[in-house]
Write a structure and sequence with these properties.
Elements (H helix, E strand, L loop, with lengths): L24 H5 L21 H15 L3 E2 L3 H9 L50 E7 L22 E4 L15 E4 L8 E2 L3 E2 L5
Parallel strand pairs: 2-5
Antiparallel strand pairs: 1-6, 2-3, 3-4
Length: 204
């Protein structure tokens, strides 16, 4: 779904809000010890987690840490991915450089990989390009007409789908672009979709 980016937001994400990488198996299993792994390593991204399960983890982490944990809004996610850039990828427009930053179909060997093993973006965040798609809080809309202008999640509407971002080990480079969008049913469970909590408020 190669649509343009959300409207630019001013200061919608601080460096301390978005965690450095997608959640790992080891991290998620503190919440759900019975989770069946899609990938074997403790440091591999947790996958096969639906939207409701990702939200439940965030609620659990909020109670445990005393800091509000939540899924990012779509605008927040893209701001984090871009890290101040305006190019196709966080590092520029040269697709041949993507392999240094992302696991995608051309270099993944048909599987996800341990998080944080590729270069971070300018804000020190890993895996925003590739490895696994990431749930966002927003409900899917075909365009941004009527979207919130302050980076809040756009949860109104009748669509049954939720936004996912980032591309994955299974998908081609074009789907790993900073602006690329996709949608999934909230119950979608598979080995190329995970999530990354944000820590801190986005109440406006």
């Amino acid at each position: 779904h190669p649509l343009p980016s959300p409207p630019p937001e001013s200061g919608c994400l601080s460096l301390k809000v978005c965690v450095q990488s997608v959640l790992t198996n080891a991290q998620y299993e503190r919440f759900d010890p019975k989770h069946e792994r899609d990938w074997p390593g403790d440091g591999d991204p947790v996958a096969g987690v639906g939207f409701a399960e990702a939200q439940a983890y965030c609620a659990w982490l909020s109670r445990r840490s005393g800091v509000r944990a939540r899924l990012p809004s779509e605008a927040e996610w893209e701001n984090a991915c871009r890290a101040g850039s305006v190019s196709e990828y966080c590092f520029g427009d040269d697709e041949s450089m993507l392999g240094a930053y992302a696991w995608f179909d051309s270099n993944s060997g048909g599987r996800a990989h341990a998080v944080g093993t590729k270069r971070p973006n300018a804000w020190g965040l890993h895996d925003l390009h590739g490895n696994v798609w990431e749930w966002c809080e927003d409900r899917w809309h075909d365009d941004y007409e009527g979207a919130p202008e302050d980076a809040r999640p756009w949860t109104e509407g009748a669509s049954p789908f939720r936004v996912s971002r980032g591309g994955s080990w299974l998908w081609q480079a074009v789907f790993c672009r900073s602006a690329n969008r996709d949608w999934n049913r909230p119950v979608y469970l598979w080995g190329n979709l995970g999530f990354r909590p944000c820590l801190g408020p986005l109440d406006r």
